[in-house]
Amino acid sequence: MATPIKLLLVEDSQDDADLVLAELRRAGFAPEWKRVETELDYLAELKNSPDIILADYSMPEFSGLRAVKLLREAGLDIPFILISGTVGEDLAVEAMKHGVSDYLLKDRITRLGKSTEQALEQKRLRDASKRADEEIRNQLHELQRWHEATLGREDRILELKREVNELLAQHRLPPRYSNTHAP
Fold this sequence. Notes:
Helix 2 (39-46) runs parallel beside helix 3. The longest helix is centred in the last third of the chain and has 59 residues, at 112-170. The chain has 5 helices and 5 strands, in the order E-H-E-H-E-H-E-H-E-H. Helices cover 54% and strands 16% of the residues. It has helices at residues 14-26, 39-46, 64-73, 89-97, 112-170; strands at residues 3-10, 29-36, 52-56, 80-84, 102-105.
């Protein structure tokens, strides 16, 4: 059974988009997709929370590097794969610095399925790590709250013991509690 994914495709060529979609389907994905060519359309589609973004490196009105920069500025953690006809090593390194999950050459598109799997798995692991960190923070907060409540209770018990001893002393009776001072 094919794995469903919500795909945002930043691509100006319908032929190239068809190749990408065919390769994803061949790799076992069932993409629900939207293709955009402009920055404005891209920003509008980010609001629909795609599972992954595949972007052409260079288009007449927009670029893949600009798209990944906007994604990071929006604070979104969506896997992003850059696809280009001619990406040199320097451009690939620059793209990775901007947070691109992977980059592919159009003539090696057969790597797209594996690259998509890896990018989605990395995202799943980041999400699991964030959830675990949040759970630890919540548990620490709860422990702190209980610790404070317990200390407050012990202090109150000592205070009540002192008050009982003071009342007994007022009536010239021996103290009932011997340790009424904090350790």
